[in-house]
Design goal:
Elements: H1 2-19, E1 22-28, H2 32-37, E2 40-43, E3 52-63, E4 66-77, E5 93-102, E6 121-122, E7 125-126, H3 132-141
Antiparallel strand pairs: 1-2, 1-4, 3-4, 3-5, 6-7
Length: about 140
């Protein structure tokens, strides 16, 4: 009886990892090649957000005329997919970005370059990018 209970608990504890969305993940402030060298598949968890998608994202934050590029792949929140922060800025800082999002296991392959902004759909669901948390953390670093 105890063995059966332990088996059930073990199976239940692994269900989120088995059933969760898998996304490629990496980050670099150097290049896509650098990001891809650190590429790993990870399971999106409830701590990321219960309604996540896989994302590929590149941004350039220009502060006082000096650009800094950031390259990112990972899990993100579907509701942040509108890209509303792309192109925003003020007198000292501008933010440019490109993104692609999808909602199938490890679908965030490839890289983005200027002129390749896209929002992918899968199974009729419009998705996009997680920009708010990343931009806020990068904005705070400047």
């Amino acid at each position: 009886m105890e063995a059966m209970l332990l088996l059930r608990l073990a199976v239940i504890s692994f269900l989120p990892q088995v059933l969760g969305l898998h996304c490629w993940g990496c980050y670099s402030d150097t290049s896509w090649a650098d990001c891809e060298n650190e590429l790993t598949s990870r399971v999106c968890s409830e701590t990321d957000d219960p309604d996540f998608v896989c994302q590929t994202y590149v941004t350039t934050i220009t502060t006082h005329g000096k650009p800094a590029n950031y390259y990112l792949k990972g899990c993100g929140d579907r509701k942040d997919c509108g890209g509303t922060n792309c192109g925003r800025g003020n007198e000292n800082k501008t933010i440019w970005c490109e993104f692609n999002c999808c909602c199938q296991d490890n679908c965030n392959t490839g890289i983005l370059g200027k002129g390749e902004v896209s929002v992918s759909s899968s199974q009729g669901t419009s998705v996009g990018m997680m920009i708010v948390p990343l931009l806020m953390s990068l904005y705070a670093l400047q």
